[in-house]
Amino acid sequence: MKKIVPFLLAGCIMLSMAACSGEASVAGGGGGGDKIGVSMPTQSLQRWNQDGSNMKTLLESAGYTVDLQYAGDNDIPTQVSQIENMISGGCKVLVIAAINDSSLTTVLEGAKSNNIPVIAYDRLIMNSDAVTYYATFDNWKVGSIQAQYIETALDLKNAAGPFNIEIFTGSPDDNNVNYFFGGAMEVLQPYIDEGKLVIQSGQTAKDQCTTQNWSTEESQKRMENLIASNNYSPSGTNLDAVLSSNDSVANGVTNALVAAGYTKDNFPILTGQDCDKPSVKNMIAGLQSMSVFKDTRTLAEQVVKMCDAILKGSEPEINDTETYDNGTGIIPSYLCDPVSGTVDNYKELLIDSGYYTEEDLQ
Ligand code: GAL
């Protein structure tokens, strides 16, 4: 009999705006103790802790044994050796959220030669034909949602402008950045071309806007430099918006803007992603405008269903066979649906769904 995981079921029912696909159940108890390796990049960012613990809980309740490893703080050699150990330690499936999209090619040859399927978790692993499936959120849509928020908030379709904006994206070694940046720029570029949106710094190319390791310190430094070199301040050059691909990057931008004298009454529009607690608190305080909510419970549930299907010899559910080419061909993918989170809907999205408690956000 299938076992319903109660909090996921509650999440699916209450979180109708997020993507809970199909049944909210994972096969229970049938795993026969097979070991599954789960490799996560870092514990320094909230979401990966949630991803790891959701995966462990769900896999264990489906009857599997779990080898869950975090690679220090984004340490690539640590991730490689943890994966080596998972392969030699008898894991039957590997679930990997890569730190660097291109540094796992060699170690995964070992997975392939041992017939161990590999699921790329959230971030696509590039240049490896060992990658069997990919499960993530619709990353292009994440960027679109962020840019559409700015488009609406500045009323770009109707207002004359010009408006000043600066662009921040994430780690250059994370394949997701191509999609976050691409999805956002598809919306913003026409306004930049017509001069309605102006990037005073001239830093418009993706390579100029990246933030190594999605580091808050790095984005804070870059924002401080942009403030100094463009004279952005409440009494100087107006800064209308900052596009940030995620929350850890947005937090650095917020720190720099607050230090430059911006308050909730004149804060530039600022986007994010993940609905991490510090960012939701900033939204409530008026120091970040929005974040994209990607329910880590939903992603973990899909990946557990994938593992279960693979090990039981059936076809995992996939919903995209076109978008994600990792350099060795298209990787069959399951894309979950991201949704916009703001101060207006965070209670319904995050608290009513059980993702956070009221206390978490105080
Ligand atoms: C991305 C991920 C985001 C964010 C970021 C920083 O790959 O899709 O949700 O967490 O990494 O870790």
Structural class category: alpha/beta
CATH topology of the largest domain: Rossmann fold
Order of helices and strands: EHEEHEHEHEEHEHEHHEHEHEHEEH
Query: How many β-strands, per DSSP?
Result: 14
Shape annotation: elongated
Describe this entry's structure for a reader:
The chain is of the alpha/beta class and 362 residues long. It folds into 2 domains: 17-138 and 295-337, 3-Layer(aba) Sandwich (Rossmann fold); 139-293, Response regulator (Rossmann fold), CATH 3.40.50.2300. It has 12 helices and 14 strands. The protein has helices at 6-14, 46-61, 76-88, 105-113, 139-153, 176-193, 206-209, 216-230, 247-259, 277-285, 296-311, 346-351, and strands at residues 3-4, 25-26, 35-40, 65-70, 93-96, 118-121, 131-137, 163-168, 197-198, 241-244, 269-270, 290-293, 333-336, 339-342. The chain has a 6-stranded parallel sheet with strand order 4-3-5-6-7-13, with helices on both faces. A 4-stranded parallel sheet has the order 9-8-10-11, with helices on both faces. It has a two-stranded antiparallel sheet with strand order 1-2. The longest helix has 18 residues, at 176-193. Residues 1-25 have low confidence and may be disordered. Beta-D-galactopyranose is lined by residues 45, 47, 122-123, 170, 174, 176, 214, 246, 273-274, 294.
In short:
The chain is 40% helix and 16% strand.
SSE inventory with pairings:
Elements: E1 3-4, H1 6-14, E2 25-26, E3 35-40, H2 46-61, E4 65-70, H3 76-88, E5 93-96, H4 105-113, E6 118-121, E7 131-137, H5 139-153, E8 163-168, H6 176-193, E9 197-198, H7 206-209, H8 216-230, E10 241-244, H9 247-259, E11 269-270, H10 277-285, E12 290-293, H11 296-311, E13 333-336, E14 339-342, H12 346-351
Parallel strand pairs: 3-4, 3-5, 5-6, 6-7, 7-13, 8-9, 8-10, 10-11
Antiparallel strand pairs: 1-2, 12-14
Helix pairs in contact: 2-11, 3-4, 5-6, 8-9
The structure holds beta-D-galactopyranose.
The site of beta-D-galactopyranose has 12 residues, from loops.
